[in-house]
């Protein structure tokens, strides 16, 4: 995960923890019955748990999408480099074969001139 992703996850965790602490402190100081306060704390904890699951799902999807994009880009780049290398090899191979054939013809001509 990138440094930015770690920062985002840390900020998200801090916000959720701060919200939970604020809700719990607010409920504990509210002038209600203990039973009612515990029910509110449980309900709020369930809400926060659901929010955390949703955020985790969102972040997870973003990470998967980014991985997919990076993976595709890498594959495309690797294929492009492979094709460029192959094309360069083919180009220079053909030039070398052509030059070699020219040299062979020149040598054969020189040999024929020497035989005469």
Description:
This protein has 116 residues and is mainly α. The protein has 2 helices and no strands. Helix 1 runs antiparallel to helix 2. The chain is rod-shaped and about 125 Å long. The protein starts with a helix and ends with a helix. Keywords: Membrane, Transmembrane, Transmembrane helix.
Sheet bearing the most strands, described?
none
Fraction of residues in helices? over 70%
Spans of at least 5 consecutive residues with low confidence? none
Alpha-carbon distance between the two ends: 78 Å
Shape: rod-shaped
Class based on secondary structure composition and strand pairing: mainly alpha
Provide mean pLDDT, rounded: 83
Note the beta-strand portion. Answer: under 5%
Instruction: Give the number of DSSP strands.
Output: 0
Order of secondary-structure elements? HH
Radius of gyration: 36 Å
Given the structure, what is the number of helices? 2
Oligomer: single chain
What does this entry show, briefly?
Helices cover 94% and strands 0% of the residues. By secondary structure, the chain is an all-alpha fold. The mean pLDDT is 83.
Set down the secondary structure blueprint.
Elements: H1 3-29, H2 34-115
List keywords for this structure.
116 residues; 94% helix; 0% strand; 2 helices
């Amino acid at each position: 995960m990138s440094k930015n992703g770690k920062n985002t996850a840390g900020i998200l965790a801090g916000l959720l923890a701060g919200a939970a602490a604020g809700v719990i402190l607010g409920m504990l100081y509210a002038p209600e019955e203990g039973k009612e306060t515990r029910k509110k704390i449980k309900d709020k904890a369930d809400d926060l748990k659901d929010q955390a699951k949703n955020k985790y799902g969102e972040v997870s999807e973003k990470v998967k999408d980014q991985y997919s994009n990076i993976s595709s880009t890498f594959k495309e780049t690797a294929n492009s480099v492979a094709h460029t290398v192959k094309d360069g090899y083919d180009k220079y191979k053909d030039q070398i074969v052509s030059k070699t054939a020219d040299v062979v013809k020149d040598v054969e001509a020189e040999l024929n001139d020497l035989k005469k």
